[in-house]
Design brief:
This protein is mostly helical. The protein has nine helices and no strands. The protein is globular, with a radius of gyration of 19 Å.
Length: about 150
């Protein structure tokens, strides 16, 4: 006797592979739309994660959490988990050049290729957080890096 298997429900909603917010895709699309991302063959998620990882290591433990929470739809929680540099932030104050080099190392690209990646991610972040949070993050960074975070690109 053959067992009968019910036909699949074609009206069922597919299960998402990840629990991602509706705000994440526009954020990634904004970054991916930068010409430099295409020319380097980088994925927006990878670039954003690298920048978030390095940025979080430069902020105090409280400020990195505030920044990630300020991003809508859990963008910070989704992208802020750093797989390269684990552990708490160290609030290490470094200049823009060293920050850019860290991103380049993280993404395995040249430092001159990392600068436009950083500006694309900073712009996408800055567009989504309140001005007081932009100021709070920038205040914890060295002047040249804070200016890059603060400045509209």
């Amino acid at each position: 006797m053959a067992s009968s298997v019910p036909p699949p429900d074609t009206h069922a909603v597919p299960v998402k592979e990840r629990d991602e917010s509706l705000e994440l895709q526009p954020f990634l699309d904004e970054i991916q739309g930068d010409a430099v991302m295409h020319s380097q063959g980088l994925e927006a998620r990878e670039a954003a994660s690298a920048v978030f990882c390095s940025l979080a290591r430069r902020l105090s433990d409280g400020e990195d959490v505030k920044l990630f929470r300020a991003l809508p739809g859990g963008i910070g929680a989704i992208l802020g988990a750093c797989s390269v540099h684990r552990g708490p932030s160290r609030a290490k104050r470094i200049g823009r050049d060293e920050f850019i080099t860290d991103i380049a190392d993280h993404l395995n690209i040249k430092p001159d290729q990392a600068f436009p990646v950083v500006t694309a991610v900073f712009t996408a972040v800055r567009d989504r957080i309140p001005e007081d949070e932009v100021a709070a993050v920038a205040s914890q960074l060295p002047a040249d890096l804070g200016d890059l975070f603060r400045r509209p690109v």
